Amino acid sequence: MAARVEAATMGGEIDEESDERGSMWDLDQKLDQSMDEEAGRLRNMYKEKKFSALLLLQLSFQSLGVVYGDLGTSPLYVFYNTFPHGIKDPEDIIGALSLIIYSLTLIPLLKYVFVVCKANDNGQGGTFALYSLLCRHAKVKTIRNQHRTDEELTTYSRSTFHEHSFAAKTKRWLEDKKSRKTALLGLVLVGTCMVIGDGILTPAISVLSAAGGLRVNLPHISNGVVVLVAVVILVSLFSVQHYGTDRVGWLFAPIVFLWFLSIASIGIYNIWKHDTTVLKAFSPVYIYRYFKRGGRDRWTSLGGIMLSITGIEALFADLSHFPVSAVQIAFTAIVFPCLLLAYSGQAAYIRNHPDHVADAFYRSIPGSVYWPMFIIATAAAIVASQATISATFSLIKQALAHSCFPRVKVVHTSRKFLGQIYVPDINWILMILCIAVTAGFKNQSQIGNAYGTAVVIVMLVTTLLMTLIMILVWRCHWVLVLVFTVLSLVVECTYFSAMLFKVDQGGWVPLVIAAAFLLIMSVWHYGTLKRYEFEMHSRVSMAWILGLGPSLGLVRVPGVGLVYTELASGVPHIFSHFITNLPAIHSVVVFVCVKNLPVYTVPEEERFLVKRIGPKNFHMFRCVARYGYGDLHKKDDDFEKRLFESLFLFIRLESMMEGGCSDSDDYSICGSQNHQFKENNENVATFDTFDSIESITPVKRVSHTVTASSQMSGGVDELEFINRCRDAGVVHIMGNTVVRARRQARFYKKIAIDYVYAFLRKICREHSVIFNVPQESLLNVGQIFYV
Questions:
Q1: 661: which of 374, 496, 612, 762 fits an S-S bond (Cβ 3.0–4.6 Å)?
Q2: How far is CA 442 from CA 109, 518, 724, in A?
Q3: What residues does the K+ potassium transporter C-terminal domain cover (predicted)?
């Protein structure tokens, strides 16, 4: 920062007074000190990531309850779904066990725990987290509302490519055509919809399988009673979601840990008592012999085998609370060996009692510990269900941030953990669908077929996204990428081919659920994209604004007008529509753009970008509020207060800089370590058109002496003026844009826009509710455009 402010004068140059120079130096030192404190904060943040060994073990233990509940409860129903028609050959049990062992090794262990989990976005997992990583490394977003200053965020990490590298070629290939960007987003939406389907099916099959244990010791109980018990548990589970998991989350890890120890102990007991020869299933030769015996039943049994690896999608989506190393330790030290022992023990029991395959888990439990084990199994099933429900809430929040889901209420349930949220509307939809699936199918087999279909499609989507991550983010050699992709697709397509035989046996359920959610998300994103494109192409020319003069050709009444727009640059059409129909406008006008970036979170001190539009006497500003897909607009957030604080800080800093500010591409980053101000020392003006990105307003050189004190005085005067206007009243001006299909549009577009999108707009939350805008201060401006 300069300690001296000079300007062209008629008589020469005048030095600043020493006390003014000293005050400017003091301010410069304070800014430097704040920058040093910010750097120190970042260094401490990176140091905190280096966990001690004791803390790492503690986090590994805690991750059991959040991450591995779903995967851990699979022994409840795997063997029954593998042999729904009974066991014809005892050797098939060894072959099935061998398939389970190597499925757990190849997919959860090698692929997800040691590869996919490393592709997290600052600790966040899930399909949209992978998509956000790709959006930062390539221009693949369908809504292009990013500014170059967004890349300066401390949380915005990206890699650079050599121009002729394979990564650069792949990046250009993705960016070349709009259809490829749309296809990539469509792939992400398919994976997300399947995980939502998983959030419906996991509670159904887990709770129903756990409640099914009642019929083993109480054979007189009918299947209807078991279904009723499962429905009561499910209703109770979904009814307490609004309390969040923060209060009872400490119970999850001990429950799941006790579950893993119990099933491992029972597995060892059954191996020792019934048949130790099942351990030969660790040889892959028995997989070859299993399929060599032939028969369609053996191939379709892969659908049941695949249920042994369900929960991996929730594992990745629930990654946010723990470091990757803690998740890896928990899986390799506890989850993996306990599951192998549990499945081996069940196989040993079934070898001696093949007719008990339908209730293999509960019948293999020693009688003395049956009821304690039933209670533990039910508790573990509830924890597993909670994990998938939480993962569904997180994915919905991420979809909201990417404009791929209608605006719904999101409640923050924990003051400690940012990722613990509750979405009321989605919660009740999940509950209704979950009860419908449980009561409609009434048995594990059909629900298992539906469950397997959802999981295998999510795995395929993750593999395709990981291929791009390895190329663009990790910059792996193409040979390594090819090996990973081919091996993953061979295994997963094999499972997928087996699930195709079970589409008519319940596998259609997740397809229908996913299709419904995919329709909603696609139509909403399409409508949002068209609204943004309309605003971009109908922006008001700065030449027209400047031609109106400081009064904008209207009466400037006391007060502040906050004009909300989706544009981060240019003057929106809603403003011209407003001043054309009303004879007055507020003395201070601030264009407010709230946009979401492909990062998990934006630090509070880097939230707002502020700049001036036009000359100072226009009193027009732009404020861009940036949020990550994990940030929440909480009820206690005073958005308006923080906006004005950022505006005042901008004016103070601007008053210390020489030259006027304009509506250029340069922002002042209030509260950040970077402050960019552009000096305009020429007597020329460059005006924008509808297609340009931004405008530069004329700034004429002052022909008299300007000292630092006079500039500071001007800044104080403007602050007082804005404060007086703020006291006079703040009005929030929001656009109510109605989207309609053109008369000559095709019938499917008319249905999508005029009916589906219009209905979603009608039932979704308004922006005024999200930002806690008082109704008495709200002014809606309506307009219609056709697509």
A1: 612
A2: 32, 27, 68
A3: 558-784
Q: Please, are residues 327 and 319 in contact by the beta-carbon 8 Å criterion?
A: yes
- Residue-wise pLDDT for 97-119, tens only, equals 999 999 999 999 999 999 999 88
Region for 557 from its dihedrals, namely left if φ exceeds 0, alpha if ψ lies in -120 to 50, beta otherwise: beta
Q: How confident is the model at residue 5 (pLDDT cuts 50, 70, 90)?
A: very low
Q: Is 553 left (phi over 0), alpha (psi -120 to 50) or beta?
A: left
Q: What are phi and psi of 406, to 5 degrees?
A: -55, 150
Instruction: Give me the helices (H) in 615-707, please.
Output: 639-655
Q: Is the pLDDT of residue 747 over 50?
A: yes
Of 5-14, 58-67, 439-448, which gets the smallest average pLDDT?
5-14
pLDDT tops 80 at residue 418: no
Q: What pLDDT digit, counting tens, does each position of 267-282 carry?
A: 999 999 999 999 999 9
Please give the DSSP secondary-structure letter assigned to residue 744: T
Nearest to 120 by CA among 157, 166, 173, 172: 157
Parallel, antiparallel or unpaired: strands 620-627 and 608-613: antiparallel
Q: Encoding tokens for residue 610?
A: 């502020």
The least confident of 48-62, 433-447, 757-771 is 48-62
pLDDT of residue 134: 92
Residue 762 CB neighbour total at 10 angstroms? 8
Measured CA distances, 569 to 151, 516, 572, 643, 691 (Å): 16, 35, 9, 17, 11
What is the C-alpha to C-alpha distance for residues 778 and 733, in angstroms, rounded to an integer?
6
pLDDT at 475 over 50: yes
CB 683 within 8 A of CB 659: no
Sign of the Cα torsion 309, 314, 316, 318 reads: negative
- Give the model's pLDDT for residue 30: 42
**How far apart are alpha carbons 298 and 576 in whole angstroms?**
69
Residues contacting 648, CB < 8 A, separation 6+: 719, 722
Q: How distant, in Å, are the alpha carbons of 26, 590, 622, 627, 630 from that of 605?
A: 22, 20, 18, 12, 16
> What is the maximum alpha-carbon separation in the chain?
107
pLDDT computed for residue 366 by the predictor: 92
The helix (H) or strand (E) run that includes residue 668 is strand 668-669
For the sheet containing 668-669, what is the strand order? 668-669, 608-613, 620-627, 584-596, 555-565, 730-740, 778-786
Could you tell me if 623 and 590 are in contact, meaning their C-beta atoms sit under 8 angstroms apart? yes
DSSP β-bridge partners for residue 611: 622
Whether 743 and 52 have beta carbons less than 8 Å apart is answered as: no
Q: Angle at the Cα of 710 (from 701 to 32), degrees rounded to 5?
A: 95
Could you tell me the two tokens for 4? 């001296």
Determine the Cα–Cα distance for residues 52 and 198; give it in Å rounded to an integer.
Answer: 35
Rounded to whole angstroms, what are the CA distances from 708 to 6, 657, 714, 776?
8, 8, 10, 41
> What is the tally of helices (H) and strands (E) in the chain?
30, 9
C-alpha closest to that of 78 among 305, 267, 287: 305
For residue 569, give the nearest of 719, 699, 689, 739 by alpha carbon.
689
According to DSSP, the residues that pair with 593 across neighbouring strands are 565, 624
Backbone CA torsion sign across 113, 114, 115, 118: positive
Residue given tokens 């957030």 in the structure block: 637
Mean pLDDT of the chain: 80
Name which of 138, 64, 194 is nearest 514 in CA terms: 194
What is the mean pLDDT of the segment spanning 79-83?
Answer: 90
